[in-house]
Design goal:
Layout lengths: L1 E4 L7 H14 L3 E4 L12 H13 L3 E3 L8 E4 L11 E5 L6 H13 L5 E7 L9 H13 L5 E7 L8 E7 L9 E2 L9 E7 L7 H13 L5 E5 L6 E8 L4 E7 L6 H18 L5 H13 L6 E5 L4 H13 L2 E8 L2 E8 L3
Parallel strand pairs: 1-2, 5-6, 9-14, 10-11
Antiparallel strand pairs: 2-4, 3-4, 6-8, 7-8, 10-12, 12-13, 14-16, 15-16
Length: 347
C-alpha cells in the first residue's frame, strides 16, 4: 500500500488524479490523506469524485472514502472489467465541473486497457482553473499521438460556467507501451492555429470576432476562425496553438464578465508570444500534464521536454509519479527555459 500525504508540495487535486491513473496502470494500491487540505473547500469535489468512481469501475477497484468532501481515500485496483471493455461509458460531472480534469485521470488509465473504450463525459468544457477542451483536443492529444497513443476526441456541445451542460466524446485504443518523446526544439516559424469561440448569447456584440481581432493585434495571425456555439450559459474563449514533431504549445484565455472581448484575445496571444520568445518547445501546462506519460514511456527510452519554467504542478507530478514507477527526472535550467528529462530508474 503506497502512502501519500495530499498536502505535500502543490497540495491540490493533481496528486489524486495522477495517483489514481498510475494505480490503475501499475496495479499498485494507495492510501491518500489530507486531500486538498490547504484549499478553501478541502477534500473531494465533484470532478474528483467522478474521476475516482469512473476509474474504479474500469478497473474493478475497491475504494473507500469516495464521498463528497472526503479528506482520505483508499484505492485498490483489480482487473479491468470485461463487461465494459469496447463500450461507451457515460459520465456526468454535474453542472460545470471540468471534463478535462476528469480526463487527466481517465485517459492514461484507458491507454492500457485490453480493449478500446469510449468515454462520453458531460460537464464544463470551458471553465476556470482547467484546460479548455480546445487545448486537450489540439495540444495534449496530438502530443500523446507522437508517443504512439491512439486517441480520438470530439466536442459534442459546449459547457460554460455556471450551468455547464457540455458534452465530449473521447475514444481510447489500447497501447501496449508508449514511446519516449522529444519535444525540445525551440519553434522556428511556428504555424499558429487560432480559434475564437463565443456562445450564441454574445453574437450581437460580435464577441468572437473581437477576440480574434485582439489576438491578431499581438501576434499578427493570418486567418483564424470566429465561431458561435449553442450553450446553456453565456461564455467565450480564445485558444491559440502550434504543434509539430519537435514542439507543442497552446495558450488560452476564458472570457469574464466585464472583460472586453479584445482583451481576452490579447491575453491568449500575449501568453503565446511569451512562450515563443522564451524558446520553449512546450507550454507550462503541457509540461505539468505530460510528466505521467513520460514516466510510462521511460522503459523504452529517455523523454525530453523543454518548458518555459518548472512549475509547482510539474514538481508535484514528478514526486507522485516516483511513488508508483521506478523512474528518474533530471531538470536543467537553459536561459529562460527548463529541460526536463525522464528515464528508467535502473539506467
Amino acid at each position: 500500500m503506497i502512502e501519500i500525504d495530499g498536502s505535500e508540495l502543490e497540495g491540490g487535486g493533481q496528486i489524486l488524479r495522477t495517483a489514481v491513473a498510475l494505480s490503475c496502470v501499475t496495479g499498485k494500491p494507495f492510501r491518500i490523506k489530507n486531500i486538498r487540505k490547504g484549499r478553501p473547500q478541502p477534500g473531494l469535489k465533484q470532478q474528483h469524485l467522478v474521476s475516482l468512481q469512473a476509474a474504479a469501475m474500469l478497473y474493478s477497484a475497491d475504494v473507500k472514502g469516495d464521498r463528497s468532501g472526503s479528506m482520505s481515500v483508499t484505492f485498490a485496483p483489480g482487473e479491468p472489467d470485461p463487461r465494459i471493455m469496447g463500450k461507451t461509458i457515460k459520465i456526468d460531472v454535474g453542472t460545470a465541473g471540468s471534463v478535462t480534469l476528469v480526463l487527466q485521470t481517465l485517459m492514461p488509465a484507458c491507454l492500457f486497457l485490453p480493449k478500446p473504450v469510449t468515454l462520453e463525459i458531460a460537464g464544463g468544457t470551458h471553465v476556470e482553473w482547467s484546460p479548455p477542451f480546445d487545448y486537450f483536443q489540439r495540444v495534449l492529444v496530438p502530443a500523446t499521438r507522437l508517443m504512439g497513443a491512439d486517441v480520438k476526441s470530439e466536442l459534442l456541445s459546449y459547457g460554460f460556467y455556471p450551468k455547464g451542460g457540455g458534452r465530449v466524446r473521447v475514444s481510447v485504443s489500447p497501447c501496449n507501451s508508449l514511446g519516449p518523446i522529444q519535444l525540445a526544439e525551440s519553434p522556428r516559424n511556428p504555424q499558429l492555429h487560432a480559434t475564437s469561440i463565443a456562445s450564441e448569447h454574445l453574437r450581437k456584440a460580435r464577441v468572437a470576432e473581437r477576440q480574434l481581432e485582439g489576438a491578431k493585434k499581438i501576434l499578427g495571425i493570418a486567418g483564424g476562425s470566429a465561431v458561435y456555439v449553442p450553450s446553456l450559459s453565456p461564455g467565450c474563449c480564445m485558444h491559440i496553438s502550434s504543434i509539430s514533431p519537435g514542439h507543442a504549445i497552446g495558450a488560452s484565455c476564458l472570457g469574464q464578465p466585464g472583460k472586453p472581448a479584445e482583451k481576452v484575445g490579447e491575453a491568449a496571444a500575449l501568453e503565446m508570444k511569451r512562450m515563443l520568445e522564451s524558446g520553449a518547445a512546450v507550454d507550462a501546462h503541457l509540461a505539468d500534464q505530460f510528466i505521467p506519460y513520460m514516466a510510462l514511456a521511460a522503459k523504452n527510452g529517455t523523454s525530453r521536454i523543454l518548458c518555459p519554467e518548472l512549475s509547482s504542478h510539474a514538481e508535484t507530478n514528478m514526486w507522485i509519479v516516483k511513488k508508483f514507477l521506478d523512474v528518474e527526472f533530471r531538470t536543467e535550467k537553459k536561459g529562460q527555459t527548463s529541460l526536463i528529462r525522464c528515464f528508467n530508474g535502473g539506467t
